[in-house]
Specification:
Pfam families: PMEI. The chain has helices at 5-27, 34-41, 48-55, 66-94, 98-126, 130-151, 158-182. By secondary structure, it is mostly helical. The protein has a single domain (31-182), classed as Invertase/pectin methylesterase inhibitor family protein (Butyryl-CoA Dehydrogenase, subunit A, domain 3). Helix 2 (34-41) packs antiparallel against helix 3, helix 4 (66-94) packs antiparallel against helix 7 and helix 5 (98-126) packs antiparallel against helix 6. The termini are far apart.
């Protein structure tokens, strides 16, 4: 019982599909390695100690692929943005100094815009549009930068600068992931 040409061609296509397509998709869903985490955290733009602390903070992170890690990072950062937005809104309502009130109001605007950047980032990630995702993450970084610049015009609580530094670092980590691993 021999195989005819049609059967061989069909078999070859199935083998090709299984070997190349299935293995390629499996490659994209592998867990992030310690070496890759090291590459992210030692990137020149990233605060290494904060990065390692964050990425080693939960055993759940170790089981994620790059899409999952990016989603985890964006989720955490978007919550932090929302919390900071509420904090700035509260400061606007409670501050009597007109200059500080104006600066806090600018931060309300930038953090409000930042929350819409996250909405875009989640959509971009879900659709695997990594080029647009990069721009959405840059948007979050720009919004935090804008607020930080505005706050530098007076002497607010130093914790605000620390919190802004954290969200900026999370954005930078996201950018490194997109550039080094997702856009490949």
């Amino acid at each position: 019982m021999g195989l005819n040409v049609k059967s061989c061609f069909l078999l070859a296509n199935i083998v090709f599909f299984l070997v190349f397509v299935v293995s390629a998709s499996a490659r994209f869903s592998t867990e992030v390695t310690k070496s890759e985490i090291n590459s992210i955290c030692t990137h020149r733009d990233v605060n290494a100690s904060l990065c390692f602390e964050f990425l080693n903070s939960s055993p759940q992170i170790a089981a994620l692929d790059f899409d999952g890690l990016t989603k985890y990072l964006l989720t955490y950062e978007s919550r932090k943005f929302s919390d900071m937005l509420k904090q700035f809104q509260s400061l606007v309502n409670s501050t009597t100094d007109p200059s500080a009130k104006g600066s806090y109001d600018v931060c309300v605007g930038t953090f409000d815009k930042g929350t819409s950047c996250f909405d875009d980032a989640f959509k971009d990630l879900a659709s695997k549009d990594y080029i647009t995702l990069e721009w959405s993450v840059v948007c979050t970084l720009d919004m935090a930068d804008g607020c930080e610049e505005e706050l530098s015009t007076f002497k607010p609580n130093p914790q605000l600068f620390k919190d802004i530094s954290i969200v900026k670092n999370l954005s930078l980590m996201g950018l490194v992931i997109v550039k080094l691993f997702l856009k490949k």
